[in-house]
Design a protein that fits this description.
The two termini are about 25 Å apart. The protein is an alpha/beta fold. The chain has helices spanning about 35-40, 65-70, 85-95, 120-125, 145-155, 180-190, 195-215, 230-235, 255-275, 315-330, 340-360, 380-385, 400-415, 420-425, 445-450, 470-480, 480-485, and strands spanning about 5-15, 20-25, 30-35, 45-50, 55, 60-65, 105-110, 135, 140-145, 165-170, 175-180, 215-225, 245-250, 280-285, 335-340, 365-370, 385-390, 430, 505, 525-530, 530-535. Helix 7 packs across helix 8 (about 230-235), helix 10 (about 315-330) crosses helix 11 and helix 15 (about 445-450) runs antiparallel to helix 16 (about 470-480). Helix content is about 35%, strand content about 20%.
Length: about 550
């Protein structure tokens, strides 16, 4: 966009502590604010009256999976199904409507719908007995499949559990139909036919439309295999990509040494072939552990419901440290999934080792999710310059907590979850993400929970672990300046002359809204480098 755009008639949150009333954009960048922008209105190519609304830097998503989110659009619509029966019925409906599809593939069912999160293949056999069915749980760490999928994968009572994974079994030892964590899930997922490139591009288009309607313009794709980069580049070539993205290439604990050269090649390829200016691949993703609801998050003390187990470390701590140090030496930012307190400690230790080994530089390491942190480790985030990336929507006392998490870790450790307030008070940098499609991609839903620590039904009234609540301004900063800092793009987190014009227009000022109604604030418009990607029909 080369013309002059002026937005006026509302509140403009600059992110620097001072609000103003208008903003002007030319060539994708902010050129004036306040009275200076108002003075440019007579010569503007386009003038937008904010109607008393609220303009601010666009939201970022510091941890998500856009391709997976877009692909859910093409399978059974099981997200949000309230029971096993409802989920099975939707799978049967979709399979009947798509008789030519060899595999029925979908996501994301809720793991708390079955006792212990254990789902039976026979429930799916009742509606699709003759084709393989593979469904991913909402956490994407678990798969539920039917008997035909187990058969095609060769999974029997004699199949041993893989090193990084578990096959849930019936009392007689036969596979039940639930597979936990990487290597177990991959026994089936590796048999699923690859998606054609055009379908992956369509998935990114769907994801981009969803993000535009949510006011999001930058996304950290937190799980990318090198072939997935082709879909991003092709989407950019076709003009189908409507958000900025940094691709985090997933490090495999068994093959990471060979991956170093391949990841560097993907990074160079993005720099050389992306003509859109929207793509980067400068981050490496590590899974330190699994998830508490599956009993696979790495804990310092055993699980209450499995006193023989402290979970599943995906990497041995010394191996994680070695790999983080190596990719850090290669100039990559590291982004580490860490849920349990042992996983978080291993991630912090790895970052600390990389700093010692590779010297001082602006590395901005990220630890994502940060669910349970031993209090002794909280000060280390600020001391090591680690960005604490939270998915704030998870910080509520919901069914996942009551049915799975608390019974597994107990009340004491449950009270340590998602320490946003303590880390903020300690000077750590916070960024917010959604982990979409694991959970909702709508930033205002996460902001509401971060501010209230209550479910959407209002429970508990005083807030769950209320000392961890953030103010609205802190939550807005985590979605804007915090994510921009994570992205090495600090200019996108505030509005000043010369800043990229990535903007979101909200129906009202979130700082003046009842905190329990923040999720109802509407996104009226989104601009990416001054180009509209969404305008609401009023």
């Amino acid at each position: 966009m080369t013309g002059l755009l002026v937005l006026h008639g509302g509140t403009v949150r600059t992110g620097t502590g001072e609000d103003t009333t208008a903003l002007a954009v030319r060539d994708g960048r902010v050129v004036a604010l306040g009275a200076g922008a108002e003075a440019l209105r007579p010569g503007a190519d386009e003038s937008v009256d904010l109607g008393g609304g609220f303009l601010m830097p666009a939201f970022g998503d510091g941890h998500a999976h856009p391709l997976f989110g877009g692909l859910e659009h093409f399978g059974p619509r099981i997200k949000g199904c309230a029971s096993v029966g409802e989920t099975v019925a939707e799978v049967g409906r979709w399979a009947a409507a798509h008789p030519d599809e060899e595999w029925v593939v979908g996501a994301s069912y809720e793991p708390e719908l079955a006792p212990g999160g254990e789902f039976d293949a026979r429930w799916l056999d009742a509606v699709v007995p003759d084709r393989p069915v593979v469904l991913r749980a909402s956490d994407y760490h678990t798969v539920w499949c039917n008997t035909e999928a187990l058969r095609r994968a060769g999974i029997t009572a004699d199949t041993p559990d893989p090193r990084l994974g578990r096959i849930v079994r019936r009392p007689d030892g036969s596979p039940m139909g639930t597979l936990r964590e990487w290597h177990a899930c991959d026994l089936v997922l590796d048999r699923v036919p690859a998606r054609p490139l055009g379908e992956l591009v369509d998935a990114l288009r769907v994801a981009g439309d969803a993000y535009a309607r949510a006011g999001v313009t930058w996304v950290q794709d937190a799980w990318v295999e090198p072939p997935m980069a082709d879909a991003y580049l092709e989407a950019a070539r076709r003009g189908a990509l409507s958000f900025r993205a940094n691709l985090a290439l997933r490090a495999d604990p068994d093959h990471w040494q060979e991956q170093r050269a391949a990841f560097a090649a993907v990074r160079r390829r993005m720099e050389a072939e992306d003509g859109s200016g929207l793509l980067e691949a400068r981050t490496v993703k590590f899974f330190a552990d699994g998830v508490i609801e599956g009993g696979t998050a790495a804990m310092l003390e055993p699980y209450h419901d499995a006193p023989h187990s402290c979970g599943m470390a995906v990497w041995e701590p010394a191996r994680l440290t070695e790999a983080v140090r190596a990719f850090d030496a290669d100039g990559f930012q590291v982004h580490i999934h860490a849920i349990g307190d042992a996983g978080v400690r291993a991630a912090l230790d790895a970052v600390e080792s990389a700093r010692r080994a590779n010297g001082t530089r602006d590395r901005r390491p990220v630890i994502a999710h940060v669910q349970v942190v031993d209090p002794a480790d909280l000060p280390r985030f600020a001391a090591l310059g680690v960005v604490a990336n939270f998915e704030p929507l998870w910080a509520q006392y919901d069914g996942t907590q009551t049915e799975l998490t608390v019974p597994r870790v107990g009340e004491r450790r449950a009270a340590l979850q998602y320490p946003m307030g303590e880390l903020a008070r300690g000077g750590a940098r916070l960024s917010f993400g959604s982990d979409w499609p694991v959970s909702s991609h709508l930033p205002l839903e996460g902001i509401q929970v971060a501010v209230t620590r209550r479910t959407f039904d209002g429970d508990p009234e005083a807030g769950w672990t209320p000392h961890q609540r953030l103010t609205v301004d802190q939550a807005l900063d985590a979605c804007t300046a915090g994510v921009a800092h994570q992205a090495f793009a600090d200019g996108r987190g505030t509005l000043a002359a010369g800043a990229p014009a990535d903007l979101v227009w909200l129906s009202e000022d979130p700082r003046g809204v009842d905190p329990m109604k923040l999720r109802h604030v509407r996104v009226r418009g989104t601009w990416l480098a001054g180009r509209p990607t969404h305008r609401a029909d009023d």
